[in-house]
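thought: fold this chain, then report.
action: predict
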Amino acid sequence: MKKLLIIISILWVSVACTSQADKQNKAITKSINEFAIIIHGGAGTILKKNMSAEKEAAYKEKLTEAIKTGYEILKNGGTSTAAVMKTIQVMEESPLFNAGKGAVFTHDETNELDASFMDGKTLNAGAVAGVKDVKSPIELAIKVMTDSDHVMLSGDGASTFAKEKGLEIVDPSYFFTENRFKTLQRIKHKQQTALDHDAKKVAFYDADIKNAKFGTVGCVALDKNGNIAAGTSTGGMTNKRWGRIGDAPIIGSGTYANNKTCGVSSTGWGEYFIRSQVAYDISAQMEYQQKTLKDATQNVIQEKLTKLGGTGGVVALDKNGHMSFEFNTAGMYRASMDDKGNLVVKIYKE
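observation:
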């Protein structure tokens, strides 16, 4: 009888502790935002000493315009898909960012655009790479997801698909900006000078990459129905050759969304983000290791990516409305808004 009482007592204590732990876990995971949105406009060597007051103001103004566009959609009950697309389109149409209108130039002095999108509810996704005449790559990526049996289309095929679906096509000259073109010429001159000095140097002069600004744009949104969506759009890397494709159009590297965990959009040295599967890794750590969004993003960017030698960052948003900016560079153009309308716009590491 005494043994039975002891066993019952142990079971009672165990149940009580479990119940208390469940309550604590529920408190920890309780939603803090009914809806929310977070964006980036690229990361890299972004230093205040190199930024004029006028240019800083221009970036902050455009980031604010972009995120408020998506916020209003979410506030009025719109979908996370619509919020992500419209927000990114504001940045695609600005020459300030390396996406759409402000895309950087390839070695052959053309513009090749990449984008991807993922729906956290269905885990469906769409992506495009090497597009040269579609005004909004993010819209095309979403159209690939909704109107085709594929996940990724590239080059001329992606352009043909866009035309068939009635998307806006522009002359490639639309993407020309003097500033981006001059940047390419400086890099090519520096590369040629290095080659002339030492013929044994590799053809791709990458010494500037670690000190570059990765102007990719991205957005993650959580709508009132609890659905997460994430999207990324970019012009790639200045002076890229041979049809190079970075992480932006790669699901799991540049973009990932899952209603069970979070949504992520990346920006940085794409080769490392591909090798690390940065966006998916954050979600996986949350799902399988029960990590918080902050712990997962910090581990992936500050430890795993950094140890590998990669530079850049992510913006991420989890199913409960928690948000995270994480980057290992000097700065990242970024902004966020919660369901109360609180706006955060930052550029430098703080």
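thought: worth noting. The domain at 33-348 is CATH 3.60.20.30 (Glutamine Phosphoribosylpyrophosphate, subunit 1, domain 1).
final: tokens above.
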